[in-house]
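Record type: monomer structure entry
Structure origin: computed from sequence
Chain ID: A
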Amino acid sequence: MAYTSNQLRQIAASARTSNLNNTINSVTFGNVNLKAEASSVSVNVTGSANSVFSAQVTRSSDGFFYNFTTQTFLAAVTSQSRLKNQSPRSFSLAIPAAASGDVYTVIIMAEPHYGTRLTIGNGIRYAVSVTQLGSAKITFTASGTGITNTALGDSTGSIVDTFPTLRGPTVVIDELQLTVPDAASDNGFFITTTGIDLNKGTWDSGALYWQTGNYVANGAGTDATALILDSVDDLFVGMQVGVIAGTAQAELRAITAINTTTKTLTLDGNETWANDNVILFRAYGLRLIKQVIGIGLSLRNPTVKLGQTTTSIKTELTSDISEGGDIAVNGTTGIGKGATIRMRGVKKNSETGACVVGGLGNSTTAGSFVLTNGEIEASATRPVRVNTLIYIDGSSNKVFLNGTLSISKYPAAAQTIYVDTNKILTKGTAS
């Protein structure tokens, strides 16, 4: 609390006889990690009992001064912008919410005419700052060959926050359909890991990655494993070469060693690049993502599902179609070689395998495919009619992702975490 006028006169008299023997010794904050949300922070000033100080507080983002009466930051400097003639004690500051964070500087000034000096700073003035950490958004996106970047959800929080594993904020991916561009040559996708049901499968956290970029190659390499960069800052062993000169790499070469002196990476396989190529690196998996950028994640119940693909007979069949024969259909969109066929009149030629598509002539409204390991029985008296439905299993251009991502730790700045669909799906082909 502030001194009375009589107390201050006594202090002044004492100061004149003590020759500035009253000291302010330290200034500390009650909490050093401030969240982006509105909060308060205590300022602790310690010193001898008869010391006297004043305080002023500024905000870095706009240079505003703290008004101790209104407990707000204002552009105008008034008498209320200074906390005058205080004894050693703690006082609180009301910190407003700031999504991007801010920095607050507390200036402690000794009052020499009351016999006070500082043992910190320059003896008269000492400034100390506390940082309010902004919130950061984690954005989850699915991306891969044949998949347009698909938003899966996002979550915003502060690096100050920590949560128990599996009990933090969540992003729920619920039957979210991945975006596939329309194309006549669309042969769908196959799930890499399936069970009995060819249209359902699973995925795991190994498909999650974070990507960093704009590393520049210092010299060219052809089928080489030693990659020299202009900088190796913030790269880690285990990260993989994801993109070279704008081209995503089919085979991801991992870093096995980093020489910080020569700025040389050792890769686990041969790679080719030109001088000054821009290279992007990826950190795959929960452990490496946390090591590289501090994001704590866990994944529960990850599944993937294909929408049922159908087409139909384009021309009535009045005679048998033997194995290897072509079937004219009303569109081949989403059908890939190797997909399973179900339809009226189809007979398997082998007990060990299903009747499948052996190859395709692509078309969005017409086209054909080859019958493998099967035949169609038809005759003039028992034809297979026009528009008879053909069910296609294991191949589709309609892909649905599921899973729950739990966040135990947020990053310091906004980041994007990708789901690599190339580790979940295989792009279908016509032949």
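Annotation 1: The chain has a mean pLDDT of 92.
Annotation 2: DSSP finds two helices and 34 strands in the chain.
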